[in-house]
Design a protein that fits this description.
The complex is a heterodimer of chains A (about 550) and B (about 1000). Chain A has about 550 residues and is mainly α. Chain A contains 19 helices and ten strands. Classes of the chains: A mainly alpha (about 550), B mainly beta (about 1000). At the A-B interface, helix 1, helix 2, helix 3, helix 5 and helix 19 of A face strand 23, strand 24, strand 26, strand 27 and strand 28 of B.
């Protein structure tokens, strides 16, 4: 008996030790939740998922910069101010760019995903050619869009057409700007050829033909602009841009009706306000390409960060339009405020401004969400006569204004109402303005130029552009028109660069409206500088991050940095 | 729960006190009587006298006499701890025996990995903490009790001491890699387990395995050092019952001190002036309103800490152990209950529930050894632990961040109408956070079991035995909670009436209890092997061969963690003078590709016992002298969070929204680029040590080590261009050398009535990155190579800007527009721009030096013990809002009086100008905020008094001791002037404070 027992023990002991060749399955992990590459691309549903994720590198511009209460790019331009360090734009205003708005990795990641998808076309079991064309077209569009975002910031950068691995030669030199433009245009052409003109409701948010055409148009506009044509701009380039823009404007959908129309329900500037909260499937045919997302409520940073601070509003009030920007609004008679006969009253500065002013800016006295905006200060010590939304504490508006555009009035701190709140990359109004700008460069302020501008203005009930402008006057009016119509849409920051107007517009003093209210209730308006910003010509292009410069000796830094 | 526990303990205690283990049974046979003496002829009491292979035993009395009934032909067995057991066969002879017990060979037995070695035979570098000493530290978390007690350990608290959430970070011999995974392997009874929530009374030995010879058995898991904990076991002898009841209180060791409203407002206005912001037109910003006459609702001056924190909170521990056994069965049984309360005030203003934090823990253990046959020994170790943590739904971090942020005049605690006050800026009120956000109960139920057997195989080969053990640990965890929200109200005057603005929403406590984080985990470990030991007098051989596998499962979307490998060791000793050992492990990790998984890790070591050489034998002073050396290879196969870096992974996630609904279209995306050839880090560790005992004078031990870690698991992020667009693969690329020494010296002196002992230890470890992937062409100071892997980087502050001219003449500071009084940084690369390229090493997070001083003094019944612990070579950055005043709307401490002010203190200011804005220049990581993180703490102090033995013998009690002890009594450091704790400077500011404990109790032994 005992010996039996012992033998058993020995057997057990030896058996457990016999696993000397440890390469058995004990350390093979259980099948995991991860997908493998084969399953991702050989099953169409999985490939669709991978494809959907290529879109995820699209960034909206509501909260682009900063680590806490991120704010829009507009606060680095002269459109607005966000004075807290954590908002992220102060660094740019002060002329330090390295690492701020550094999107290289984000967009090269998106490009990598596009390249992976394009390398798997032979493997993916597309159900039909139509589906294949649409999906491939989207990928070309996205790759071009992401690369456009890169060269807009840095100028020519390495063109990456294949899926890179660490063993590959990664020391790419920069491609020239022209090579990059050509590359983007090629991708756009491919996308234009492959994409459908219109998308059914269940494909909302996907790029259509018009998106690729609009990207092509914008690329050509940028390439024709003074930044890349230093001595003199080339009318031929502008003509190319104008043609591309015109093609977007004239694009017809399958039924022969215009693919895009300005959002106009006959309510003037009210339509302008609502177009940002209205979906294509709800009748907004102005939008060409946008970041599709769910509805938002007040607590969403897209709303909360922008919403006015103080009693009744309870936003962060982090985006404060500057007086410099407010001064760009024309009077209702179409004259600029400094023009003779404009009727501008410095003691009543918000009277008789053009209609869009009242939809873009929240100023002292605006009734908004049933609360009167108060950004005045009281000279006496009684806090109850101090403006409720311009408290002395630092975190209220630094300029006396808040932004109204992008804030749906029904979405309030005390309600749970939600609204559509998409970030629009391309809309038809921009195309009209692009067309006006390009044609003015080609042939001066012709009737076509006026017509395009007045299309945009009349939708918002703005009086027509005054007649008889010369080319240079027209150029200035177009710049102004873009500043207003496309305000806060991430245009001015880039427009100023391509026009080489950064130093003029963004450098130097930024003004606020300092409003005081005396005991008799009289308001005094004083424009005064609140900050001096730095802009030097070399800032037209971002510096390539130092870390990237250090890694690759073939990269050449942009001049000035 | 606790009162029941106390009652239960009490009853068990009574029951056990009356229990005499297994009285001699009346069986047929003759009565043998006798006396047991020691070699000096003195009677020995409490000797276990038992009949071999029978459950019959008795004990000698105070005069050494015994009487036992034995049937003929049996063998009597005499044993007592400290003596060599004696067997007497009763085949013939008298009924009256005189037995002489010789003192046991006092060679200490040292726990090594998967086995033991005698002290002289040991060739490893191992340091240890003696069992009883940990019991003197009145903290529930054992990781906080080991500090300062032995060499080779760095123990620094990682958080404050929130009940149940206190914990220390532990490093063995500092760190030797720039990989983020630097933790040692921690084993309890040969199974990977955390020891932190064990009771100290359960612990028999705590060893730190330091060199390659000691850690090589763990191979791929050994490079960060190993901590090897063993629980107590039974013994053959009269049972020992030990009962301890102790109770005390914990109080914050330090808390930041903030200025009152008048001073706050004065300094705030100064900061506004500096910012060029309009001065407040609100009388709240008039300091004179706070001179005692103002309306306290309109002009409050709240001491937030005082209003919401109690000065101290209670804690208590009750424990009972029973230890003993016969020759056939030996047992150790333990039960303990520990509870600790939190320090929040006003936790019961809400009648529905109390939110004061409370930690309670129950530990149970039963370790039983059974000799089933003469050659088969079986052990069954079962332990259970219950950990309950009750917390308010607002985290300690959020509560303390609010307490440390809220200015004294921001608002009253309650408004005039007794509603909870708040403002549009300050929407959190500690009253609401503590009493009106609900609560959470976090439960953990843990079962630990080791079952195993050892079979002697002498019939095959004398000295051979086989063993097998299975360890099964299960954890069940879940949280129950109810939540509530509260609104705050801001008073404002509208004309003659007082109105309130409301922020947030009031809700009732949720009716239903919600369950969160419901899960379980278990770990199954199998360990088996052979061991062999042969002693021929002149030479000795000990050898082990072990197989180990373990799998850790956790429910949910988690993949099991597995380990597998064999290890072995052979120690050869010659003439008790020369010892040599070869050890190895061949083990692997599932994190590497099949075929690339297993590594071979060898180590050789040797020891020379110089004192056994003839020239030192009989030396009157040097009683023991040993020189040791070891060299070997160990590995680290972990890389922090990510697993399976060898394979290409695609993940579900990401995606984008399409269509008219709101749903996300699921995405999938490519994971990090794989590296099929990724392997473990390898460390070549060398160690030389000397152990010296000078009879009745001192014990001394010193070890020098040099660890060379190669193939460090890292990525090439520093050198690979970002155009690749994907996370870079893990690679084995980088080298760190970690060098240092440890020394320990101790001295004991014991006379009849009094005695003392003292032990000092010092550990030094200094690491340097020899190579990592860094770009070429950088200025020297920017390289991480050549610097410590735990270096802190920051700018070098060289003063404050004097005026605009100074700014114009200085390099451009790129963080934010500067003005006079802002911090001026040194332009390290002389490019005339101050940016992150100008960062240098401004300190180290991990101390190079660790010290401990342990002492004990006894005089008659009195005794005193203390532990001092200290560190050197550590830097802390003071970045919390008690130092960064007015940042993020926070209040001010008196540090603000050192702020730069034009024309006032331009030359001797130590703090930049005050600002209400979040200044990115001044609050950069820089030498301005770096302080020495060194400290010397009185970690532990205990005074005890044992009642005279003569009082106790009558009531059958062996020992009664009353004691008073403290933990963290005092700290000597350089940041106490800020009222911060040098160990965790953020404690009490953005997290729970570090606590000081005063504790008193009674210990009774039967």
């Amino acid at each position: 008996m005992r010996n039996m027992k012992l033998k058993n023990w020995i057997f057990l002991a030896l058996a457990s030790l016999s696993v000397i060749s440890c390469e058995d399955d004990f350390l093979d992990r259980a099948p995991g939740l991860n997908l493998d590459e084969v399953k991702v691309f050989t099953i169409f549903e999985n490939a669709q998922r991978f494809h959907a994720d290529i879109y995820s590198h699209l960034q909206d511009g509501f909260n682009r910069l900063g680590n806490y209460q991120p704010v829009p790019m507009s606060s680095a331009s002269d459109e607005s101010d966000s004075y807290m360090g954590y908002h992220g734009t102060q660094t740019l205003n002060f002329g330090s760019y390295d690492g701020v708005d550094d999107q290289l990795f984000n967009y090269y990641s998106g490009i990598r995903k596009a390249n992976i998808f394009l390398s798997k076309l032979d493997v993916i079991p597309f159900p039909d050619q139509k589906a294949r064309d649409a999906m491939v077209g989207e990928v070309y569009f996205l790759r071009a869009f992401y690369f456009f975002e890169i060269i807009k910031r840095y100028g020519g950068m390495p063109i990456i057409e294949q899926v890179l691995l660490p063993g590959d030669n990664l020391m790419y030199p920069r491609n020239s700007y022209k090579e990059c433009v050509d590359y983007i245009l090629t991708d756009c052409e491919q996308a234009i050829n492959l994409l459908p003109v219109s998308r059914p409701d269940n494909e909302l948010g996907r790029a259509a033909k018009g998106a690729a055409m609009a990207l092509k148009a914008r690329m050509l506009m940028y390439a024709a602009s003074p930044l890349w044509n230093l001595e003199i701009t080339n009318p031929d380039k502008w003509q190319l841009a104008a043609d591309a823009v015109k093609a977007v404007i004239e694009l017809k959908n399958e039924s022969g009706s215009p693919a895009y129309e300005l959002y106009s329900k006959g309510n003037g500037a009210k339509d302008y306000e609502r177009l940002f909260f209205t979906r294509p499937n709800n009748g907004n045919k102005e939008v060409i390409f946008y970041k599709h997302q769910g509805t938002v409520d007040f607590n969403n940073q897209q709303i909360f960060v922008w919403a006015p601070k103080g009693d009744g509003f309870e936003g962060a009030g982090a985006v404060a339009p500057t007086q410099n920007f407010v001064d760009l609004f024309e009077m209702s008679n179409g004259k600029t405020i400094n023009e003779p006969g404009s009727g501008y009253d410095p003691d009543n500065p918000y009277l008789n401004r053009e209609p869009r002013f009242y939809k873009i800016i929240l100023y002292n006295g605006t009734v908004w969400q049933n609360v009167t905006v108060e950004t005045f200060l009281s000279p006496d010590l009684n806090p109850s006569s101090n403006g409720k939304h311009r408290k002395i504490l630092a975190e209220y508006t630094s300029t006396g204004y808040y932004v109204r555009k992008y804030l749906p009035e029904e979405v309030q701190t005390k309600t749970t109402v939600r609204a559509y709140h998409d970030w629009i990359y391309f809309r038809l109004a921009e195309m009209y303005l692009n067309y006006a700008e390009a044609m003015n460069e080609v042939s001066g302020p012709t009737q076509e130029v006026y017509a395009a501008l007045n299309m945009v203005r009349s939708r918002s009930g703005v009086i027509d552009m005054p007649a008889g402008l010369d080319q240079d006057q027209m150029r200035k009016r177009i710049m102004n028109e873009r500043a207003i119509e496309l305000s806060f849409e991430e245009h001015r920051w880039w427009d100023a660069r391509r026009w080489k107007k950064g130093a003029e517009w963004f450098g130097g003093e930024m003004n606020e409206m300092y409003i005081t209210k005396d005991a008799q209730g009289r308001l005094t308006y004083t424009k005064k500088p609140f900050e001096t910003r730095v802009y030097r010509d070399y800032m037209d292009l971002y510096p390539i991050p130092i870390s990237e410069m250090n890694k690759n000796p073939l990269l050449q830094q942009n001049p000035g940095w | 729960m606790i009162p029941y526990m106390k009652l239960f303990c009490f009853l068990l205690f009574i029951a056990l006190a009356g229990l005499n283990p297994l009285p001699a049974q009346e069986i047929s046979g003759k009565t043998i009587t006798g006396i047991v003496n020691d070699t000096g002829g003195k009677p020995v009491p409490d000797v276990n006298v038992s009949v071999l292979d029978e459950f019959v035993q008795t004990f000698t009395d105070q005069e050494g006499r015994f009487s036992i009934v034995v049937s003929a032909g049996k063998t009597l067995y005499f044993s007592k701890q400290g003596y060599t057991a004696v067997k007497i066969n009763l085949l013939s002879g008298s009924d009256r025996l005189v037995v002489t017990l010789e003192p046991a060979d006092k060679e200490k037995i040292i726990d090594v990995s998967y086995g033991t070695r005698t002290q002289s035979e040991l060739t490893h570098a191992i340091s240890s903490i003696s069992a009883g000493s940990l019991e003197k530290t009145p903290v529930p978390n054992l990781s906080n009790a080991i500090v300062g007690r032995t060499t080779g350990l760095t123990v620094i608290k990682s958080t404050g001491d929130e009940p149940g959430y206190d914990n220390s970070a532990i490093y063995v011999r500092g760190i030797g890699t720039f990989n983020s995974y630097v933790s040692p392997l921690i084993l309890v009874d040969n199974v990977e387990r955390n020891f932190a929530q064990f009771d100290p009374m359960e612990i028999e030995s705590f060893s730190v395995l330091k060199d390659a010879a000691a850690t090589v058995q763990y191979g791929i898991r050994g490079a960060n050092g190993v901590i090897n904990v063993k629980t107590k076991r039974g013994f053959t002898g009269k049972s020992e019952i030990n009962f301890i009841a102790q109770t005390g209180f914990q109080a914050p060791s330090t808390l930041p001190e903030y200025l009152g409203s008048a001073e706050y407002v004065t300094l705030y206005n100064k900061a506004l002036r500096n910012d060029g912001l309009p001065l407040p037109v609100d009388s709240k910003f008039d300091p004179s309103m706070y001179y005692g006459t103002g309306d306290p609702f309109r002009y409050p001056d709240v001491d937030w800490y005082g209003d919401f924190l109690k000065p101290a909170a209670p804690q208590s521990q009750y424990k009972l152990s029973l230890r003993g056994g016969t020759t056939a069965i030996r047992y150790f049984v333990f039960m303990g209950a520990t509870s600790q309360d939190g320090i929040y005030k006003l936790t019961d203003v809400n009648p529905q529930y109390n939110t004061n934090p409370k930690y309670s823990r129950y530990n149970l253990r039963s370790n039983v050894d059974v000799d089933v046959t003469k050659t088969l020994q079986v052990f069954v170790d079962l332990a259970a632990r219950v950990e309950n943590r009750h917390v308010p739904n607002s985290s300690a971090a959020s509560i303390f961040s609010t307490l440390s942020q809220l200015p004294p005049n921001a608002m009253p605690v309650n408004n005039r109408d007794s509603s909870i006050a708040g403002t549009s800026v300050y929407r959190n009120n500690p009253l609401g956070m503590i009493s009106k956000t609900g609560y959470r109960d976090n439960y953990q139920r843990i079962m630990l079991g080791n079952v195993g057997a050892t079979q002697k195989l002498d019939f095959l080969l004398k000295g051979l035995s086989a063993n097998l053990m299975v360890g099964l640990d299960g954890t069940n965890y879940y949280s129950l909670g109810r939540s509530q929200t509260y609104a705050v109200y801001q008073e404002y005057t509208s004309g003659d009436s007082t109105e309130y603005l409301k922020y947030g929403d009031n809700s009732d406590i949720s009716i239903n209890t919600e369950k969160f984080d419901d899960g379980f985990a278990y770990m199954l470990t199998t360990l088996g092997g052979l061991s062999y030991s042969l002693n021929t007098g002149a030479s000795s051989l000990s050898a082990d061969l072990n197989y180990m596998q373990s799998k850790y499962f956790q429910n949910g979307d988690n993949l099991a963690y597995s380990n597998q490998g064999i290890s072995g060791r052979a120690t050869y000793g010659f003439r008790k003078k020369y010892f040599t050992e070869f050890g190895f492990a061949y083990n692997g990790s599932e994190d590497f590709r099949k075929g690339n998984r297993f590594g071979f890790f060898p180590a050789v070591s040797a020891a020379w016992i110089v004192s056994n050489e003839s020239f030192l034998q009989g030396n009157s002073t040097i009683s023991f002298l040993k020189v040791r050396g070891s060299y070997g290879k160990v590995g680290n196969g972990k890389l922090g969070l990510e697993r399976f870096p060898f394979e290409q992974k695609y993940y579900s996630g990401g995606g984008y929204i399409f269509g008219s609904g709101f749903g996300n279209t699921d995405g999938s995306y490519e994971g990090r680029i794989p590296n099929p050839n990724i392997r473990w880090e390898e460390s070549l560790n060398a160690n030389i040590g000397i152990d010296l005992e000078m009879k009745n004078i001192l014990n001394f031990s010193i070890d020098f080590f040099n660890n060379y870690r190669d193939n460090i698991i890292t990525t090439s992020t520093n050198i690979t261009p970002g155009i690749i667009g994907q996370l870079l693969p893990y690679e084995n690329n980088g080298t760190v050398v970690n060098r240092g020494f440890e020394a320990m010296i101790s001295h004991n002196h014991q006379k009849k009535n009094w005695g003392y002992s003292i032990q000092g230890n010092v550990s030094y470890a200094c690491n340097k990155i020899l190579s990592m992937q860094e770009v070429s062409g950088l200025p020297d100071y920017q390289y991480k190579q050549g610097k410590s892997a735990s270096a802190i980087w920051g700018l070098e502050a060289i003063g404050f800007f004097r005026d605009e001219e100074d700014i114009a003449n200085s390099p451009y500071q790129s963080f934010e527009a500067v003005q006079p009084g802002d911090v001026k940084f040194k332009d390290q690369n002389n490019d005339n721009i101050i940016d992150n390229q100008d960062q240098i090493v401004i300190g180290d997070q991990i101390p190079q030096w660790n010290f401990g001083l342990l002492g004990a003094v006894n005089y008659k019944g009195f005794d005193l013990h203390f532990v001092l612990s200290g560190i050197l070579g550590r830097t802390v950055l003071l970045t919390n809002n008690s130092v960064w005043v007015l940042q993020n709307n926070s209040k001010v401490t008196d540090i603000a009086y050192n702020a730069w002010e034009k024309g006032v203190n331009e030359d001797n200011a130590t703090y930049p100008r005050l600002t209400t804005l979040n200044n990115k220049n001044n609050y950069n990581n820089s030498t301005l905020w770096a302080r020495s993180g060194n400290y010397l703490k009185v970690t532990n102090l205990e005074i005890g008094y044992s009642l005279p033995g003569k009082w106790l013998t009558k009531i059958n009690v062996k020992e009664v001791r009353l004691f008073l002890n403290t933990y963290n009594l005092m700290s000597f450091d350089s940041i106490s002037e800020y009222h911060l704790d040098a160990e965790v400077p953020d404690a009490g500011v953005s997290g729970y404070p570090i606590m000081r404990v005063y504790n008193t109790g009674i210990s009774v032994k039967f």
